[in-house]
Write a structure and sequence with these properties.
The chain is mainly β. It is built from three helices and 19 strands. The relative contact order is 0.21.
Length: 424
């Protein structure tokens, strides 16, 4: 039996998204500051430093020296809630996303004239969403935290003077926690809301592969494929303050199989002259893999099974998206380069299925950045991004234990990324 009154209990990898990340859906774009300055428009066709391990593994063949590169992105997101409506009283303060930090680090070294090795650590997915106590929509989600940390050993091969290829397996660790409430106060023996608290984790393997082509001396084209990753999460579901007659209070083993989608990133970099370089790029993401989720809870008592707590399903109906970006850099002098970019990133969800955990709309991003190289061995990159979204509507149907909730969300965010690269 399936039910919807507990449908959000273990959607660890897909139900928590907001304006915190500078990419839409549940993806995070903060893997470098050198790329952020141009809105990542040339990520697949430019190998500015060892962060190309993520952007395009083939780009390692362009790095002629051993280098270490690392940094941190800080994201300050804001979600304004308006026109909220529900039969259950509550507050709608918004600003549910705390300040977030996203680290990254890379190392690369040439093996010989043809092969280059690299290793990277970055965060491709991650979010935290914490609504205030008494949030009116808490029956559809009150707290969400998801983090994926990826390690990627990489090898690049220079086929000839024009073409390079690269490959890197990814080892991905996911951890998450979700909370929501159930309106059980009106049931016999009810003493306020029932609280659901879920945790789960898994480690899974994927891969990134790329090709980089110097079409001319001034123009490069790149293509990167980020594979899907199949997760089999093991976790536990804790139920507190449920009416005693239901027999649900306690902890249950839970399992969830989910696939995070593949994506294809392609871009062109063109050097107009010694000062100006232009970038244009597009990313296709197969979000339609997230059709639905289904959670299996074990050890549930008979009444809980009858209520549908053993198997919990939720339709997502996400759709594939194409995002696009354009950027430029200006070499001011030998030490300084200035950057700017713009990106458009559509939402993979719509008004029929959008939830309070993923209240995202179509997104636009403007970025500015700079790189400072006081010596040939050292580069410091900085980037600033501002994003805003179209107003997103949330329309959640109700049930006996999850009152209906609707609202308008206006999301925006500021992002600041810093990176240091040292070459040996």
């Amino acid at each position: 039996m399936k039910t919807t009154w507990l449908k959000t209990t273990l959607a660890l990898t897909i139900s928590a998204a907001s304006a915190q990340a500078l990419a839409n859906g549940i993806a995070i774009n903060e893997q470098s500051a050198s790329g952020a300055g141009t809105a990542y428009a040339g990520r697949a066709s430019s190998a500015l430093d060892a962060s190309t391990i993520y952007g395009n593994p083939a780009g390692l063949s362009k790095l002629k020296r051993t280098e270490i590169s690392g940094g941190l992105a800080i994201v300050d997101a804001k979600d304004d809630i308006s026109q909220a409506n529900s039969p259950h009283p509550g507050s709608n303060k918004g600003d549910s996303v705390p300040l977030a930090a996203v680290p990254f680090g890379y190392i690369s070294t040439p093996i010989n004239e043809d092969f280059t090795f690299g290793f990277g650590m970055y965060v491709p997915y991650g979010i935290i969403n914490d609504y205030e106590n008494g949030f009116q929509g808490s029956y559809h989600g009150s707290y969400s935290k998801v983090q994926v940390i990826t390690l990627q050993p990489t090898i690049a091969y220079k086929v000839n003077d024009k073409v390079s290829v690269g490959f890197g397996p990814t080892i991905n660790r996911i951890d998450g926690q979700l909370k929501n409430d159930l309106a059980t106060n009106g049931l016999a023996g009810g003493q306020g809301d029932t609280h659901i608290d879920i945790k789960g984790d898994d480690t899974a393997v994927g891969y990134n592969i790329g090709v980089l082509v110097d079409v001319t001396d001034d123009t490069a084209w790149g293509l990167t494929y980020h594979s899907k990753v199949d997760y089999h999460l093991d976790g536990r579901t804790k139920v507190k303050n449920a009416p005693g007659a239901l027999g649900l209070n306690g902890s249950y083993d839970a399992k969830l199989d989910i696939t995070l989608p593949e994506s294809v990133d392609t871009s062109i970099t063109h050097k107009f002259n010694d000062q100006w370089t232009g970038y244009i790029g597009a990313v296709w993401t197969r979000w339609s893999r997230l059709e639905k989720i289904e959670v299996e809870n074990s050890g549930v008592p008979a009444l809980g099974q009858a209520l549908g707590f053993g198997t919990i399903g939720e339709d997502l109906k996400w759709h594939d998206t194409w995002s696009a970006s354009v950027g430029a850099s200006y070499q001011l002098n030998q030490e300084w380069v200035l950057r700017a970019g713009y990106a458009y990133d559509p939402s993979p969800t719509d008004n029929d299925y959008r939830s309070v955990r993923i209240p995202v709309g179509d997104r636009q991003i403007v970025t500015f950045g700079a790189g400072w190289s006081p010596t040939p061995d050292l580069t410091v990159d900085m980037a600033y991004a501002y994003l805003w979204e179209d107003t997103a509507s949330v329309n959640l149907e109700g049930s006996a234990l999850q009152p209906a909730y609707s609202a308008k969300y206006d999301n925006s965010a500021h992002g600041l990324t810093a990176q240091m690269t040292y070459r040996f």
